[in-house]
């Protein structure tokens, strides 16, 4: 039996594959009772190192937090472990590609505020994520289109006892866990990860968004270990002021602060949020949640409308001539919306100002995807 024939939890039908996580593939699913679309993560029961049940337990431990997807069901069907969870929008990596691989300072700061808060919540629940990267942050859909969500907890780990808050011991000679591009220097050095490493990784994510790339991308080596070593060397030898050159000093302050933390230190999340909020205000930005991709999508829609309008006079003249000749030749176009007044068209394409007081893209069935093409399904 293929995955396309499966139903899980008696009421969820599995559709097409829409992405992959660190462990398992993700499919678009449908609640056969309500018709609601959801995401289904599948893992073969024959997997050498099964992780989905553990990930479901982590989600359960984090349940209720802002930006934490809700797990509807977990169980085993046929030859698969399955986890049913909220359907979300495109990842920040998808949106980064959609915006030609550069985010404005405003968008980076809007994201930074939410991202710091998401990681703070995970840490407050005694977990570290250990794979902080753009692919693991997804925007919501509908009314929560401005909300950043965190996914993929297959590599997450408790860094302290939830009851006593006794911290895990310092260890060395650990293998690199996570994604080398965003890994902290201590992770490269084989040190056990803790809260400081998630925060340092987030610093690299923000600089990636600002710069368009990081200096240690694209390095070649004969083996994976040699490549990781080259990445580590480049990270360690690139001065903070060089890495952050051309951008506000707050990014260097953030990175230097996170790199200075001791193994069991609690990061000062409020301080880190504040330095970016103060920068946001100083730059004169508005907290309207108008992200780069919102503007870009709106501009593309407006351009398409303008092109459709240019063809309208020809259609109108054809219709007038037909009417004068006493014929009933249709005068419409293939796109009914193109027959409406320009003001109506722009208002229809305008994101929901009244509902959200900001330009929120409404995504129809855009799922937890690792493909930038998924965002093309978003419509205003």
UniProtKB/TrEMBL annotation:
SUPFAM superfamilies: Protein kinase-like (PK-like). Its EC number is 2.7.11.1. Residues 308-337 are annotated as: Disordered. Residues 12-281 form the Protein kinase domain. It catalyses: L-seryl-[protein] + ATP = O-phospho-L-seryl-[protein] + ADP + H(+); L-threonyl-[protein] + ATP = O-phospho-L-threonyl-[protein] + ADP + H(+). ATP binds at residue 41. Keywords: ATP-binding, Kinase, Nucleotide-binding, Serine/threonine-protein kinase, Transferase. PROSITE patterns: PROTEIN_KINASE_ATP, PROTEIN_KINASE_DOM, PROTEIN_KINASE_ST. InterPro entries: CK1_Ser-Thr_kinase, Kinase-like_dom_sf, Prot_kinase_dom, Protein_kinase_ATP_BS, Ser/Thr_kinase_AS. This is non-specific serine/threonine protein kinase. It comes from Venturia nashicola.
């Amino acid at each position: 039996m293929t995955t396309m024939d499966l139903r899980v939890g008696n009421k969820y039908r599995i559709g097409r594959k829409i992405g992959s996580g660190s462990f398992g593939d993700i499919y678009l699913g449908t609640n056969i009772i309500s018709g609601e679309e959801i995401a289904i993560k599948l893992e073969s029961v024959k997997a050498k190192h099964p992780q989905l049940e553990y990930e479901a337990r982590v989600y359960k431990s984090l349940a209720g937090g802002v930006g934490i997807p809700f797990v509807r069901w977990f169980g085993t069907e046929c030859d698969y472990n399955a986890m049913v969870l909220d359907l979300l929008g495109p990842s920040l990596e998808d949106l980064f590609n959609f915006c030609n691989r550069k985010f404005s300072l405003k968008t980076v700061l809007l994201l930074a505020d939410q991202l710091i808060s998401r990681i703070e919540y995970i840490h407050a629940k005694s977990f570290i994520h250990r794979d902080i990267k753009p692919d693991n942050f997804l925007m919501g859909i509908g009314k929560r289109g401005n909300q950043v969500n965190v996914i993929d907890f297959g590599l997450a780990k408790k860094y302290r006892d939830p009851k006593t808050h006794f911290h895990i011991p310092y260890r060395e000679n650990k293998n690199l866990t996570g994604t080398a591009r965003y890994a902290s220097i201590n992770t490269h050095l084989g040190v056990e990860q803790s809260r400081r490493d998630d925060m340092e990784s987030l610093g690299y994510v923000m600089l990636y968004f600002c710069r368009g790339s990081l200096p240690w991308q694209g390095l070649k080596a004969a083996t994976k270990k040699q490549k990781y070593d080259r990445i580590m060397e480049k990270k360690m030898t690139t001065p903070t002021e060089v890495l952050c050159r051309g951008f506000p000093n707050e990014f260097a302050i953030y990175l230097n602060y996170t790199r200075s933390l001791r193994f069991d230190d609690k990061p000062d999340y409020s301080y880190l949020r504040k330095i970016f909020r103060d920068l946001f205000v100083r730059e004169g930005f508005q907290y309207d949640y108008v992200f780069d991709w919102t503007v870009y999508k709106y501009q593309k829609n407006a351009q398409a409308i303008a092109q459709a309008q240019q063809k309208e006079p020809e259609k109108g003249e054809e219709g007038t001539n037909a009417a004068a000749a006493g014929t009933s030749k249709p005068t419409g176009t293939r796109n009914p919306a193109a027959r409406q007044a320009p003001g109506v068209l722009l208002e229809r394409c305008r994101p929901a100002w009244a509902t959200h007081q900001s330009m929120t893209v409404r995504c129809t069935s855009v799922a937890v995807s690792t493909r930038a093409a998924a965002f093309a399904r978003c419509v205003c």
